Amino acid sequence: MQENKPVLVVGLGNPGPEYVRTRHNVGFKAVARIVGAAGTWKKDHNALVATMDIDGRRVIFAMPQTYMNLSGDSVGPIMRYYKIPLENLIVIHDDMDLPIGTSREKIGGGSAGHNGIRSIDKAVGNEYRRIRIGIGHPRELGLPMSPADWVLGKFSDEDLEKLRTVIDNIQLF
Fold it and tell me: Is 45 tagged catalytic?
C-alpha cells in the first residue's frame, strides 16, 4: 500500500430498497457500518461516496450505484479521479464459499464467479485487496435454490447479527 496516497474502500451491492437486506449487499452493509454517523455521503462518479481521515490517512468509501455486474464502471473513474493506485484499493464483497459469520482476505486472484469482482478486474486490474464476507451456499444448507436466488435472498435477523460481528472486526490497515 502506498502510504502517501488515498485509500479507496468499496463495498459491493445493488442499489435500491428492494436489495437492502439481501446477501449480495454485504459490501454495502460493511462500508455503511464502518463509516457510521461520522461520514457524509454524496453522489459522485455513479456511487455514494464518503471521505474520512483514519489514522492520518485519507480514506474514500464508495458504494457503487450501478448494479453489481457493472461495479467497475464506477470504481474505475473514482480511482482515476482521486489518483488511487491499485494497491490502495480494498473491495468488500459477499462470498458464497464461506460460511455466514466468517471472512477472509486476499490480494488478487480470479473472480470466483462474482460478477462485481469480474467487472472491477476488467476496469482496473485484479491486484487489489479483497475482504470476502461469507454468506453461505444454499447447497451447503441443503436448500434447493440457485446461487442467483440465494444471493438476492434476504438475511435472517440471526444472520445479520453474525454479520455485524464480522464487520466490526474488519481491519482496514
Answer: no
